[in-house]
Each structure stands twice: as structure tokens, then as C-alpha cells.
Structure to design on (388 residues):
């Protein structure tokens, strides 16, 4: 048979001649449906040529698989644990570790490492290995307290937010709680000196929990139907005035993760400003001005008559410096003025006097049969010289 790669001299003839099909009648048959390519049981010997002889069959060498004793080296070192990169300074005899569970193996590694390696380890699972540590006194001994303290002596100190707070939030809860969040310590001390004494009934508690100061007043200062509602209005405007003079301006009102809306204040340039309160009746036709500047009190009713010439507008003065302006309903069948028109005209009049709507605070008031109603207090802000 001629080789197809005769041009390559380093490819010699095959080691074994191909098996030639046996065509005799005594040839054993192959599987059903396949041709008979099976050779005779004993093929003829290979022809004599220059090829190397066939390799001999491998035999089992029992000596190669015999178990040999481990080699003894005089300078053998224990294998370092993967958690420890330190190597021993002097050769130590190798100590075999018994097979144990994962927890026992961890304990064994710590105990053997302390005895074989110069660096001492602290075994967190074995406190008996260091009796000196057990006998040592604690670094911070427990402070001595009195037998009958008036306050909790083990409670943490007040921890308002640090001096880098750029936002502060206040919220009015129930009828007597005020929550102040993320206020700096200097601001909290100033509120204790200026705001708390304004309520004549005093306060029940003043506590700091985390970044929130919770103040509970006696009685119900946030009930707008109470007898001291005039003091409530003064406390609210005093809070806005104090925050603005210290550089915290109102930004928005949000009702997130709190039963009562939060008033968010942000750091701005501190400047003096003047605040007063306005609120509408349920129908939106009666306007109440609480302690407005003198020029605002005297001119607002006249400006409304000028912009609403076909409406009858009445004015009433009550208290020290408060005024009620009411746009009466028409007795005839003429179309009534919508409440939104009255509101927009009032905003325009106050804006022309350099007072803008700064915030709104929803507070409750008790009605008949204990029903609670909500009154929206509108906080207007203007410069101090706006009244001159």
C-alpha cells in the first residue's frame, strides 16, 4: 500500500501492518447488518523490515507502590497557618494535629500557635489560658450613684447634632408637644431661655432622645380654641423670628414618617425679619390678621375695597392689635365672589407691602362635642423696615 505522504522522509511505515479482511468461508460473521471486517483469530507475523521492534507490555511493579516511611529532615519547619504570615525564629519539632471538628480545630490552632510561635495570640474561645487578664480591673469602672437620685444618673447626656447641621425641623404634636429635630446645642439652650418662659403655665418635661428634643407644655397651648390662644400665636412668631435671626429660613412643609407635618428650616444668611399670622374662616370669606404691623392693619381693608368694588367689606378690631376683615355675601342674586379670588387679592396686597407668604402651619382646635377642626395658620414675612 502506497503512503500518501511519501514526500516526508521522516514518516516511516507504521509499526503494525493493517489487519487485512479475511475473505474465507470460515470467517466469523460480524453484527447483524454490518460487513465482515474481522480478521482471522491469529494474524500472520509482521514482515521483516527496518522498523524498531514493538514495545513490550507493561508489567505491575509492586515495589513502586510500596508505602515508604517519611523522610526525616533535621531543619523541618511547621507549616504556617494561612491566617498567620509569621515564621518561627528557631526550628521546632513538627506536632501532628488530630482530626477534629471545625470548632475544635480552630481552638487547637490557637493553643499550639501560642506555644510554638514567638508572637502570642489571644484565643477568643479560651479565657482560662490568660488568668492575668481575668484578674485585671476594668478600664472604666462603674461610677458611683446616689441611693435616691432625682434624675436617672446612668442616662446618656444630651446629644443634639453637631455644629455642621444645615437643616432643622420642628413639628407640633397633640395639643401640648413641640418636637425640634437636628438643632445644635447653642440653639437649644437659647430656645430654653427665650421660648419656653413665654408660656405662663410652664413645661412638664424637656428631654432629648437622639437628635430630637421633645418639649411637653402644661395644659394645651396648641388648642386654638383655648383661652390663651393669643400667647400661642406669639410663641409661633417668636420661633420664626429667632430662627431667622440665627440664619435658619423656612423651606417647606413635609409630612413624611411623622403623624404631624414637619417644618423644614435651612441655613441661610442671618438677618432680621418681621412675622405675623393670617388665617381664614372655613368659608374663606373672613380674614383674621394676628398682630400685623401698623401699616398693614390699617391699609389692608381699604385695598380690598378698591379691588372688590361690588362687595361689602366689614372690619372689626379685637384684642390688642388684631383685625377681622370679612367679605359679606350679597343679598341679591348677583354672582358671589369666589374664595380663591379673595385669597389671591390678599396675597397681592401684602406682597405690595413687602410681606410674602413664608409658611403655613395646620393646627387643631376643639369644637363642640369634642370634634377637632383644623385651622391653617399663614405666616407672612417681611423686612423690619417694611412698616416705616
Amino acid at each position: 500500500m502506497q503512503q500518501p505522504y511519501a514526500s516526508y522522509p521522516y514518516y516511516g511505515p507504521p509499526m503494525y501492518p493493517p489487519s487485512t479482511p479475511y475473505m474465507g468461508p470460515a470467517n466469523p460473521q460480524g453484527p447483524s447488518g454490518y460487513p465482515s471486517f474481522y480478521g482471522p483469530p491469529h494474524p500472520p507475523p509482521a514482515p521483516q523490515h527496518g522498523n524498531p521492534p514493538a514495545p513490550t507490555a507493561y508489567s505491575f511493579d509492586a515495589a513502586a507502590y510500596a508505602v515508604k516511611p517519611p523522610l526525616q529532615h533535621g531543619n523541618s519547619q511547621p507549616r504556617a497557618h494561612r491566617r498567620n504570615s509569621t515564621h518561627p525564629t528557631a526550628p521546632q519539632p513538627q506536632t501532628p494535629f488530630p482530626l477534629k471538628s471545625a470548632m475544635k480545630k480552630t481552638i487547637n490552632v490557637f493553643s499550639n500557635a501560642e506555644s510554638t510561635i514567638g508572637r502570642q495570640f489571644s484565643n477568643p474561645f479560651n479565657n482560662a489560658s490568660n488568668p492575668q487578664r481575668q484578674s485585671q480591673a476594668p478600664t472604666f469602672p462603674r461610677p458611683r450613684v446616689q441611693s435616691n437620685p432625682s434624675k436617672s444618673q446612668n442616662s446618656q447626656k444630651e446629644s443634639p447634632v453637631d455644629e455642621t447641621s444645615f437643616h432643622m425641623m420642628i413639628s407640633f404634636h397633640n395639643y401640648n408637644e413641640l418636637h425640634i429635630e437636628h438643632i445644635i446645642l447653642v440653639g437649644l439652650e437659647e430656645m430654653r431661655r427665650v421660648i419656653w418662659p413665654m408660656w405662663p403655665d410652664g413645661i412638664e418635661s424637656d428631654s432629648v432622645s437622639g437628635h430630637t428634643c421633645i418639649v411637653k407644655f402644661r395644659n394645651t397651648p396648641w388648642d386654638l380654641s383655648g383661652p390663651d390662644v393669643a400667647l400661642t400665636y406669639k410663641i409661633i412668631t417668636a420661633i420664626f423670628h429667632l430662627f431667622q435671626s440665627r440664619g435658619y429660613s423656612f423651606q417647606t412643609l413635609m409630612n413624611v414618617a411623622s403623624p404631624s407635618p414637619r417644618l423644614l428650616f435651612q441655613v441661610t444668611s442671618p438677618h432680621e425679619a418681621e412675622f405675623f399670622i393670617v388665617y381664614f374662616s372655613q368659608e374663606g370669606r373672613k380674614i383674621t390678621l394676628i398682630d400685623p404691623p401698623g401699616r398693614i392693619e390699617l391699609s389692608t381693608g381699604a385695598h380690598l375695597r378698591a379691588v372688590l368694588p361690588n362687595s361689602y367689606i366689614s372690619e372689626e378690631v379685637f384684642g390688642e392689635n388684631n383685625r377681622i376683615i370679612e367679605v359679606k355675601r350679597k343679598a341679591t342674586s348677583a354672582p358671589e365672589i369666589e374664595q380663591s379670588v379673595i385669597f389671591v387679592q390678599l396675597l397681592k396686597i401684602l406682597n405690595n407691602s413687602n410681606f410674602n407668604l413664608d409658611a403655613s402651619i395646620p393646627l387643631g382646635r376643639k369644637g363642640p362635642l369634642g370634634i377637632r377642626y383644623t385651622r391653617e395658620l399663614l405666616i407672612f414675612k417681611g423686612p423690619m423696615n417694611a412698616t416705616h
